[in-house]
Design brief:
Helix 3 runs parallel beside helix 4. The protein is elongated. The protein is built from eleven helices and 14 strands. It has a nine-stranded mixed beta sheet with strand order 10-9-8-7-11-6-12-14-13, with helices on both faces. The chain has a five-stranded mixed beta sheet with strand order 2-1-3-4-5, with helices on both faces. The protein is an alpha/beta fold and about 375 residues long. The mean pLDDT is about 95. The protein has helices at about 10-25, 60-65, 90-100, 120-125, 135-140, 145-150, 180-195, 200-210, 255-265, 280-285, 300-305; strands at about 35-40, 45-50, 75-80, 105, 130, 155-165, 195-200, 225, 245-250, 270-275, 290-295, 315-320, 345-355, 355-364. The protein starts with 8 loop residues before the first helix and ends with a strand.
């Protein structure tokens, strides 16, 4: 419907600029998308902006403010279709019409049914030229969590793990620091900074005593989530320092009541349920308006999360090391698959080398 359009390299370049601006708010906009906008007149950028977070104006509004009166007759680039409904903020389509812009170039149609083509129609009805689907694949990838949340009513789940060349995430004694090198771990902190929550199981808490923070990569810290049926957790732990980042524990009824009181006094949120599962945790996080969730758990919980549809993407770090050990843990536990022909195949795979480690990304 929007395909017969003349698209220049300049249009593509400006859309990439929008994506770069949008990325500046990674991890901070949920449940809203990441959006950047650039306004161009006579081949020069006269205004730019991005959406910084919920309740704040959208990217187009910041760009229009930056451009001022020069916006009249200009071209507006934005990576997502301008909204045309009243949510927490007024419609962007109205602001663009009021500013008398001549043309709007947008990366993709908004999957939100409240918008979904309505913003484009409104702009065209007002006599504004609209070009759609510029750098669409990159636009969709930037907002893959937002799109998934809208289409499936659940957060987008990413399983991240680091393993040796022989497929182990720790030695036979459980020692796991560090499988990969410094540069790979820095990338993990960057990935965390784009996420709304990080999930681990009780075993990871006991073995690794992690921080699950962004380690200075970003001021944004994701919600740290622990799944522990029995609340068999240490009394002293980095995750109980809730002044650094918030921590929520999901546990089952009749679990360790003494520790429960101590942790609540430290500011840890404890949610008690009848039957704990990854799907149930993801449903809760969806209700809390979170979009992107990183699973950094061990093999048993990873297998459960894959099996119940809580994980859509895998980021695997492979270190050129061999540790051996028949009982050494692997990244994914039993999925009940008995033939190699049943194996889950990753799609849209990318690989990169970071120092001596290899990073493989793909979708389930």
């Amino acid at each position: 419907m929007y395909k017969e359009q003349k698209v220049s390299e300049f249009d593509a370049q400006m859309m990439r600029k929008c994506l770069q601006l949008a990325q500046g708010a990674a991890g901070k906009t949920s449940p809203n998308p990441l959006v950047g906008s650039v306004i161009v007149k006579d081949g020069k950028i006269i205004g730019e902006g991005f959406h910084p977070g919920v309740g704040q104006p959208h990217a187009e509004v910041f760009a229009l403010r930056d451009a001022g009166e020069q916006a009249q007759g200009a071209t507006v680039y934005v990576n997502l279709e301008p909204c045309n409904h009243y949510g927490r903020t007024p419609p962007c389509s109205d602001a663009l019409i009021k500013a008398k812009v001549a043309k709007v170039v947008t990366g993709m149609v908004d999957p939100d049914p409240r918008v979904s083509g309505g913003g484009i129609k409104k702009l065209r009805d007002a006599g504004i030229e609209v070009i759609v689907s510029i750098e669409e694949a990159a636009c969709r990838q930037l907002n893959e969590a937002f799109i998934h949340r809208i289409q499936h009513q659940q957060p987008f789940g990413i399983l991240k793990y680091a393993m040796t060349l022989d497929g182990k995430i720790a030695s036979t004694t459980g020692h796991s620091a560090w499988v990969t090198g410094t540069a790979a771990r820095h990338l993990v902190h960057q990935v965390r900074s784009t996420c709304d929550a990080v999930i681990i199981g009780g075993n990871t808490v006991r073995k690794d005593n992690p921080n699950l923070t962004t380690h200075g990569v970003s001021a944004h810290q994701p919600l740290r989530v622990i799944m522990s049926r029995s609340l068999d957790l240490p009394r002293e732990c980095n995750l109980w320092q809730t002044d650094i980042a918030p921590t929520t524990i999901f546990t089952e009824f009749d679990s360790n009541s003494t520790l429960k009181k101590e942790l609540i006094n430290k500011g840890v949120v404890i949610i008690t349920v009848a039957a704990l599962s990854p799907k149930m945790v993801m449903e809760y996080l969806y209700q809390q308006e979170l979009s992107k969730v990183l699973w950094e758990c061990g093999g048993t919980l990873a297998a459960q999360a894959i099996a119940d549809g809580s994980i859509q993407k895998v980021i695997a770090f492979v270190a050129p090391k061999i540790i051996g050990g028949i009982t050494a843990p692997s990244p994914v536990g039993d999925l009940g698959l008995t033939a190699m022909t049943d194996a889950l195949q990753l799609k849209q795979m990318t690989t990169q080398v970071i120092d001596s480690d290899i990073v493989i990304e793909g979708y389930l």
